[in-house]
Amino acid sequence: WLRYAPYVKAINELKKEKDAVILAHNYMTPQIFHGVADFVGDSLQLAIEATKVKEQVIVQCGVHFMAETSKILSPEKTVLIPDSKAGCSLAESITAKDIAGMRAKYPGAPVVSYVNTTAEVKAASDICCTSSNAVDIVNSMESDLVIMTPDGHLAQNVAKETDKKIVYWEGECMVHIEFKADELREYRKYEPDAVIIAHPECPVDVVAEADFSGSTAGMINYVKENKPEKVLLVTECSMGSNIADEVPEVHFLGPCNLCPHMQKITLEKILWSLHTMTEEVIVDPEMAVKARLAVQRMIDRK
Ligand code: 13P
Ligand code: SF4
Fold it and tell me: Which family would the database say this protein is a member of (predicted)?
């Protein structure tokens, strides 16, 4: 922490000077999560918060689609991302043209797109969802057939909890597909008391091995409320480090998979971003209006 202290101090001072707020995803490193973030949360919480901030500048500490979502919801604000190359394997797996292809293949079926998509894909979708509300959003569709994009694993996990027929795009999260059901069974053998908590971007057989599955915020709440003695968090491993101090009685077991995109956001880059007011996230206003419809429909269906 001593190494980070000068950055934390400088960032917190610059935030006031520039009338800025830092919205940070739960996967940020502990020094960002605890040191400089004004608000931390999962994708849904961050999107909702973006509609409420009073400051003129939002510094999004997360990946590019999250910053774009903030800009879509708060077009009058200046939205900065400390590294615009912080992408997402899911967002990069699909284009608006692919959505049109899915619509042509399944005429009349509504398109539910995960927020892990570009503004262009959101604009081509009927409604968005996140990992915390995907089942409810799918259930709220009038049609019996629903198209889910771009995460094929999330779609298959949702399919197990709804009567709707789901067809899906076969995108994957590069972090969560690394977890294997066999690996979890091995952990169970050696740590039979451990509680396994998996993110729904994991493959279906991995989620089936878990005791609980939920969004990053859902996973954090589960650990804080239940305080299991031993926990295996089957998700990006900054999560365990971020909440470890708040639940000292909980012992976090491996494995550790990091998201290379989330890891691009560092204190140094946040400081530079605020100092130079870069990199600004720009969304074509016409596209933003269409994308906002899909995101706002999701927020309104809460
Ligand atoms: P959450 O909405 O659960 O925070 O998920 C975002 C994400 O990118 C997980 O990989
Ligand atoms: Fe995308 Fe997966 Fe990284 Fe989340 S963890 S930002 S879904 S690549």
Answer: Belongs to the quinolinate synthase family. Type 2 subfamily.
Please write the tens of the pLDDT for every residue from 24-68: 999 999 999 999 999 999 999 999 999 999 999 999 999 999 999
Pocket test for ligand 2, best of 90, 117, 177, 234 (most atoms within 8 A of CB): 90
Please classify residue 18 by burial: count the beta carbons closer than 10 Å to its beta carbon, then call 0-12 exposed, 13-18 middle and 19+ buried.
Answer: middle
Q: Does 129 belong to an annotated binding site?
A: no
CATH 3.40.50.10800 domain residues, the chain: 5-87+263-282, 91-172, 176-258
Cα distances (angstroms) measured from residue 278 to each of 6, 58, 69, 288, 302: 21, 11, 17, 20, 33
Please give the distance, rounded to the nearest whole angstrom, from the Cα atom of residue 258 to the centre of ligand 2. 9
Answer yes or no: pTM beyond 0.90.
yes
* From the candidate CATH numbers 2.60.220.30, 3.40.50.10800, 3.30.70.260, 1.10.8.470, the one assigned to the domain spanning 91-172: 3.40.50.10800
Type of residue numbered 227: K
Q: Ligand 2 center to residue 236 CA distance, Å?
A: 8
- Read off the pLDDT of residues 116-129 as tens digits, 9 standing for 90 and up: 999 999 999 999 99
Mean pLDDT rounded to a whole number for the chain: 97
43 is in an annotated binding site: yes
**Residues 244, 246, 248: CA angle, nearest 5 degrees:** 60
The answer to ipTM > 0.95 is yes
Query: Rounded to an integer, what distance in angstroms lies between the CA atom of residue 100 and that of residue 166?
Result: 17
114 is in an annotated binding site: yes
